[in-house]
Amino acid sequence: MAYIDYYKVLGVDKKASEKDIKKAYRKLARKFHPDLNPDDKAAEKRFKEINEAYEVLGNKENREKYDKYGEHWEHADEIEKQRAQQQQYQQAYGGGFGDFSGFGGFGGGGYDESDFSDFFQSMFGGRTRSSRRNVKYKGQDLHAALQLDLKDVYKTQKQTVDINGKKIRFTIPAGVQDGQTIRIKGMGGPGINGGPSGDLYIKFKINEDPKFKRVGNDLYTKHDIDLYTAVLGGETMIDTMDGKVKLKVKPGTQCGTKVRLKGKGFPVYKQEGKFGDLYVTYNVKIPTDLTSKEKELFEELAKLRNHGK
């Protein structure tokens, strides 16, 4: 996997604060959003790179792993586990035995060759074989995939997965991203010689939602309003992930107008009470199948508009 400098992708310094990273991401995401760059493959590619970078740098735990392991950040836990096992092995089997001059008897008489051999047999024979049998090793890590709808990860919930015939129930924190992997400690394979169990890694596949498009922690949706409300202003009911809200429409609202509902987006992963924003794009519906009376009124209105000019 080629190294990608996510800091460079977002145009921020490696010491940038969470706030600066989020600000840079939002600015770039809006600039290269597919809705604003239709049929632009370069912008689409850039948009994906920006989101990939934010999924890493916008998450404190992922950012720490990335800063330490670079392109191998997703395997950080496995690397740490292998290092720990290597250290256990070295402590059990290697490292030498130091200087034995402190044990009285060697060099000063009082021990014959058989005593000498017996001593080394007890030190390097019996004890070493025993220590090998008693070394504790961590069990094998297991990996699984879980496919969910967007609404399933809007709120923290519990799920049950079947791993090798064993049902494991665990909590999914709200705000999990598509492609994100979480670790469930101790739910992997059994340890060896009484060692700790391995861990279970679950990778999430989040299905696209028919109504809401998720970009980081923000949501985007389209909403129809009738011509009369667009011209005269009024109120309309907007769907959010958490129910409906009433929104005022300004007189003279144009088709394609975008409004922001602060805090009505997606929950921020493991940051309780924090949400992204919801962006609503208005689509003005032109009335069809007009009655003769309605056509007459529209014609009269057109004459008034033209006469005023």
Give a short summary of the structure:
This protein has 309 residues and is of the alpha+beta class. Helices cover 35% and strands 23% of the residues. Helix 2 (18-31) packs antiparallel against helix 3.
Helix content: 25-40%
User: Overall mean pLDDT score?
Assistant: 82
What oligomeric state do the depicted chains represent?
A: single chain
Distance between the termini: 64 Å
Strand order of the largest sheet: 6-7-11-10
C-alpha geometry: elongated
How many separate helices? 8
Strand pairing plus helix content: what structural class?
A: alpha+beta
* Most strands sheet: 4 strands, mixed
**Number of E-type strands:** 11
Work out the strand percent. 15-25%
Encode the helix/strand succession as letters.
HHHHHHEEEEEEEHEEEEH
User: From the alpha-carbon coordinates, what is the Rg to the nearest angstrom?
Assistant: 32 Å
Uncertain runs are 93-133
